[in-house]
Amino acid sequence: MKTSLSVMSLEHVENGDHDHPEEKKTFTRSADLEQQTPPQFAFNSASIRAAFVRKVFAIVTVMILVVIVMVTPVITVDDIRLFMIKNSWVYWIGLYMFVAFAATVAVFIFGIVLAIMSLFIYIKMIVGGKRYEISPEDYIFAALMLFIDIYEIFVSMLSLFNAANN
Questions:
Q1: What is the DSSP letter of 21?
Q2: Measured between alpha carbons, how far is 111 from 5 in angstroms, rounded to an integer?
Q3: d(Cα 123, Cα 15) in Å, to the nearest integer?
Q4: What's the rounded Cα separation, in Å, for the pair 124 and 132?
Q5: Three-state SS at 93
Q6: pLDDT digits over 55-100, tens only?
Q7: Global pTM?
Q8: Phi/psi zone of residue 28: left (φ > 0), alpha (ψ -120 to 50 degrees), beta?
């Protein structure tokens, strides 16, 4: 049995029955196998690669300029430099605030990613055609699963924005 999958131009070849435990499945694709990139993500021409490199280095340049702008007053202005030397507690307060904020954001983002992954799995089950699918008679159950996942994502995002405002 030979079926085609639309994701990343994969071609799915199955040998044997679906119920057979030693079923062989092989996947082939038309992308560069050595770099293991799907066709839509492969750098096919030098101009695409050059544009990518320019964008990356432009972003890094902007980031370095922002750091220079933030550090320059602390180094060049004597009053600010002496204040920072005498009051090292400012560094520690900033570090503690950063760690608390980063941990809170990381937990919320992790929850949002988990909810989005479960939403993706449920949508694949609703669409069907795979090993696990939801029966057409269970449309209320499927709608409820999707609603609960969307609700979880919405509540997680609201919690994240509320934590950012406080």
A1: T
A2: 30
A3: 27
A4: 9
A5: helix
A6: 888 898 999 999 899 888 888 899 988 888 898 898 899 899 999 9
A7: 0.46
A8: beta
* Residue 123 host element (H or E): helix 89-127
DSSP helix/strand/coil, 4? strand
Beta bridge mates, 2: 13
Angle at 69 (CA atoms; ends 103, 63), nearest 5 degrees: 55
CA 41, 44, 47, 49 torsion-angle sign: positive
**Could you read off the pLDDT of 46-65 as tens digits, one per residue?**
777 678 778 888 898 999 99
Greatest CA separation for the chain:
79
Structure tokens at 44: 């096919």
Neighbours of 60 (CB within 10 A): 10
Query: In whole angstroms, what is the distance from residue 32 CA to residue 39 CA?
Result: 7
What is the Cα–Cα distance from 32 to 38, expressed in whole angstroms? 7
